[in-house]
Amino acid sequence: MNDMRIVERLVETQGNKISARAVQVHYGTSHAIKDVDVDILDKTVTAFIGPSGCGKSTFLRCLNRMNDTIAACKVTGKITLDGEDIYDARVDPVQLRAKVGMVFQKPNPFPKSIYDNVAYGPKIHGLTRSKAELDEIVESCLRKAALWNEVKDRLTAPGTGLSGGQQQRLCIARAIATSPEVLLMDEPCSALDPIATAQVEELIDELRDQFSVVIVTHSMQQAARVSQRTAFFHLGNLVEYGETGQIFTNPRDPRTESYISGRIG
Amino acid sequence: MSVSLLLLAIALLALIGFGLARRRALSSAGGNPRELHSLPGYYGWHGALMTALPALAGLLIWLLVQPVLIERSVSAHFPADMIAADSSLALTMADVRRVAGGIDVALTAGAMKTDDAGRITTDLAQVRDTLKAVGVALGSDVTTEVLAAAQDYRRLAALGATGRALLVLVLAIAGMALAIRATDKDFRARNRVEQVTLGALMLSSSIAILTTLGIIASMLTETFHFFEAYPIADFFFGLTWSPNFKGDSQLGILPLIWGTLYISLVSMLVAVPLGLFAAIYLAEYASARARAWIKPLIELIAGIPTVVFGLFALVTVGPFLRDYIASPMGWGDSGSSVMTAGLVIGILNIPFISSLSDDIINAVPQSLRDGSLAIGATKSETVRQVVLPAALPGIMGAVLMAASRAIGETMIVSMGAGAAARLDLNPFEAMTTITVKIVSQLTGDTDFGSPETLVAFALGMTLFVITLGLNILALAIVRKYREQYE
Amino acid sequence: MTDTPKSGSIFTQTGLMAKRNASEKRFRFYGLVAVVASLMMLAFILFTIFSAGLSSFRQTTVTFSLELTEAKLDPKGGRDPAKLAKVTTVGYNKLIGTGFAAAIKEHGIEIEGLTDKDAAGFLSDEAAANLRDRVLADPTLIGQTVEINALVMGRIDGFMKGRVTAESAANDSNISAEQLALAKALDDKGLLHLSFNPAFITGTDASDTRPEAAGLGVAILGSAYMMLLVIVLALPVGVAASIYLEEFAPKNKLTDLIEVNISNLAAVPSIVFGILGLAIFINFAGLPQSSSLVGALVLSLMTLPTIIIATRASLKAVPPSIRDAALGVGASKMQTTFHHVLPLAIPGILTGAIIGLARALGETAPLLLIGMVAFVREYPGAPPAGFSDPASALPVQIYQWTQRSDPAFVERASGAIIVLLVFLLVMNTTAILLRRRFERRW
Questions:
Q1: What is the separation, in whole angstroms, between the first and last Cα of chain A?
Q2: C224 and C326 share a domain?
């Protein structure tokens, strides 16, 4: 790990996008997240790292209330988006998810055409008034996802027919089509080959201009490559959170150090 | 020796074969089972199988061949013109068998003496009375020819029985001898026994094919007979169904097909929305606890015999529709109707569609739902725009299978749809289906020479082809769908 | 908190969102309606059957004393059974009719306009037959005065059960107002009893005109015979076929053909199996019509695919590691299958077999074609010879009763359905318990 290159990036001072305070998650009898406090900055890539089963994905799913779909899962504590509590009774999780999009571990394009995959979100949220407008959104999202040149001639072909990396970029295009403010990514490259991974990582870096990106990753190299801030989770606890460079070069907690030097994981 | 006695003898010989072969194997190894190639029991089984199988095969062949040979020989008693009329010979032969059987019964009952039995050849009235006294009723008067034939029949049958017993016993003993001679400590008894077992297993699995062949063969031959007596074009394109056992029937299938399809359509209109929505609710909305209760309850509907639904149609649904809907609206006053049968078949098919669709909906990967929900779709949007399109092929398969069941349903339509073949659009009229007509043409007095009876086989063939086609299509669709997500 | 939200607050619901949520609620409601409607239909069917059928387990009888006059029943004396048997039910009918008329008078019941014919018709024809059986069984009764419990006719039974009312009787030529008045009077005196009727379960079928005497005995026995034969025929063959297909069959065209065949056979309409039975077993092989043997053969062929599908599923569920372990210690493939795989699969096989059997028990259509609709009043003999005697079957008996004109038969048919459902319930519960008890998770 010593030769790991840390890209020093200029971290602009940004406001908090999401703040979590004293978040606890229980899955039935097991206590999956213990008292986590974290502030996620706008227009920044934040990486969650940690050994498997440490709760990083669970925590990620709290941020757009995807955990609501699991009956046994109980979330307590406070998570705010732009200062508004997302677990407030007045919040419609459906509306929330339009603002906090998500990309999953395995590419999951709908069994529809490439065009319909991207157009799905804008359609259900009523973001467009005309077909031309929709076409425009689809094109711009596919461009942002760096997929446009590869698929512009076959927009009506099924999304499931693309390669793994293309599928994942399609899913990213689909997620940004609803113009979210935060983009959650749950190990987005774990099912991809190295070349596709590189393409997606490059894309994540570009997305930072417009969105606050939170990425859960298994690979420390990836966290180091794409993120500005890193949070290390261990056994449901947030052990350490700070600038990526600092976490990887000068961890404060011995557990973080053991993990990045490969002793736990 | 009667057949059951012979079977007993074979079993006994097989037992002896088992013991002898096992003992010989052991003694060839000097009493040490470890010297043997196989376990001692296998040598025993080999002996038993070698004793029983050839004997049983011989018995079976004899049982199949003897009646044919005897029939041919006995029919020489009847003049050629009688044989020419095929059905009449069959009837006479039935008489011969009954007289011969009757004499045997009379003998065992003690109403006749053994000596007398062989001698009576002329006293026809006496034969009738004696047989009547022991409970064998004869249809027509016994003729001299019949009586002579019956005597011949008895003689040949007795001869056959002796020959049969002889053959079977010889085969059994020969088989046993062969097995014992082969038995030796190096003999691979287990392999031989396992080969026989494998053969039996293969034979069992071929029964499925034999059944299909039996269905096709039986219906095909009779359908050919039907088309010899009735023009094929009139059957498939005739608009009138009016069988008349005095002849001059019009046997057009179209009204029956119309009734069948109309009733199936109504049933699908009931079953598909209810079944599909129930499946969606169970798969996507219901809590695990509710699902664990509701699913078996809905499936309970499928466990109720169709005759129960038939009674429900006949006694409850039919009169209700007639008294509260059809009559007040002036749409007809028949209790049995397309609507009655369709509704009830629809109820019957709800669990069928809901279970299959539930499985299929559950097979849609959760990741697709997550993807849709994460974009901010509501549950119903996810179901309608992502889950259902993904599950569509599978659901189509389920619907086709349900349609095939509706088309082949018999009891509900016989009790709820009526018997009148009619080409009509009014769903409150009684109409009839292919299955109802198969039942009505094949029950009661049937004459397998007349087109009115044989038409049932042509109807059955049509039904078989339609449902088979639907099922093959449905299975292919479902299989393809499963492969997509596996 | 420098950045202001791009779009509105998440606390305020957009108009579109309200619409979308309404449509979500609607959709969910449709689903709930479908579930509730299905369950209500099930409840309604069961309710109608039970409310119509439960009363068939009870039957109305009238109790009175009757002198069994020797002059009528054994005019020559001597109690010779052959001579006693010469007195037919007609003779007993007269005796019982006059006896009943006398009993009415004796109890001081006077109904205006009640003719002797009305009084005699009050009783079921079956009452005379029952009395005759009783006398023939015990000739010493002749000459004595005995207490008899006579079946009353179906309409009076219906009156006692509330099915027949004064209004419905007015349009019915089979019952007179006087007979209803008599029933009321007898009931007031405590002579009419509505009591449990074992003959409904054990008795034989009766003709169109005497629903009060119709019983299910022959049908239950016939169904039992058929189920026994189906187990003996279909279970071994089905299990053997599954073992071959699952464990031994090479992957080739023939095996594929057999598999496709089996899944298609499972979906062939049952009536087609009836045609097969009629053509092959009766017309070709000459087996006796309406016998339980032919019925069982047809039902076995129908049940076979169900058993094969269930058996293969439970064989498949036995993990390969068990097979490897057995083969590893030097067992042959056949020994592995029979010693290790099959015993582990038995609970699943039994569950499948019972479910197949339950379906066979309720099957009607194919049995109609092989002549089981015949009116059978004789119990089939003891097996194995009894397998070829004419018999009925529960579902066929139900169907036959629904085809009769007297509405009392609807009550009988519903009662028979209750019996059938009880059998099915027992079988399915057994299957579920078996599965629960022996369910194994690897």
A1: 14
A2: yes
- A17 touches C at CB < 8 Å: yes
Q: Which residue of B has its CA nearest to A60?
A: B374
Residue numbers of the domain that contains C132? 57-204
Question: Which residues in chain B have Cβ-Cβ distances shorter than 8 Å to A175?
Answer: 374-375
Judge: B371–A64 Cβ closer than 8 Å, yes or no: no
Strand, coil or helix: C193: strand
Sequence-distant (≥ 6) Cβ neighbours of residue B389 within 8 angstroms? A110, A111, A112
- Whether residues C199 and C222 share a domain: the answer is no
Asked if A63 reaches chain C (Cβ–Cβ under 8 Å), the answer is no
Q: Model-level pTM?
A: 0.85
Tell if the CB–CB gap between B204 and C244 is shorter than 8 Å.
Answer: yes
Of C20, C261, C364, the CB nearest to B212: C261
CA atoms within 13 A on the CB side of B223: 21
For residue C151, the cross-strand partners are C61
C198 plus C230 within the same structural domain? no
In-domain check, residue C294: yes
Is C21 within 8 Å of A94 when comparing Cβ atoms?
yes
Q: Which of B321, B325, B484 is nearest to B418 (CA)?
A: B321
Q: Which residue, B155, B156, B149, B154, is CA-closest to B93?
A: B149
Cβ contact, residue pair A97, B389, below 8 Å: no
- Give this complex's ipTM: 0.89
Structural domains of chain B in order of their starting residue, each with its CATH number: 3-187 (no CATH), 241-484 (1.10.3720.10)
Chain C residues within 8 A of A124 when measuring between CB atoms: 20
Within a domain: residue C30?
Answer: no
User: Which 8-state DSSP code applies to residue A147?
Assistant: -
Q: Is the CB of A83 less than 8 angstroms away from the CB of C1?
A: yes
Tokens of A83: 């200062």
Q: pLDDT tens-digit profile of B74-92?
A: 777 776 665 555 555 666 7
Task: State whether C251 and C175 are in the same domain.
Answer: no
Question: Phi-psi bin for B40: left (phi > 0), alpha (psi -120 to 50), beta?
Answer: alpha
Per the structure, the count of domains in chain C is 2
Q: Is residue C342 in some structural domain?
A: yes
CATH 3.40.50.300 fits A16-260, yes or no: yes
Mean pLDDT of the residues in chain A: 87
> CB of C226 within 8 Å of any CB in chain B?
no
Residues B174, B178, B182: CA angle, nearest 5 degrees = 170
In angstroms, the separation between the Cα of residue C15 and the nearest Cα of chain A is 11
Flag whether residue A89 sits within 8 Å of chain C, measured between CB atoms: no
B297 vs C: CB within 8 A: yes
Closest chain A residue to the Cα of C14, Cα to Cα: A95
Taking 90 as the threshold, does the pLDDT of residue C153 lie above it?
no
Picking from A41, A63, A80, A95 by the largest number of C CB atoms within 10 A of its own CB, the best residue to mutate is A95
Q: Which residues of B131-151 are buried (b: 16+ CB within 10 A; e: fewer)?
A: beebebeeeeebeeebbbbbb
Q: Does A102 contact chain C (CB < 8 Å)?
A: no
Residue B89 phi, psi (nearest 5): -65, -40
Tens of pLDDT, residues B250-298: 888 999 999 999 999 999 999 999 999 999 999 999 988 898 899 889 9
Domain extents in chain A: 16-260
Nearest CA of chain A to the CA of B483: how many Å? 14
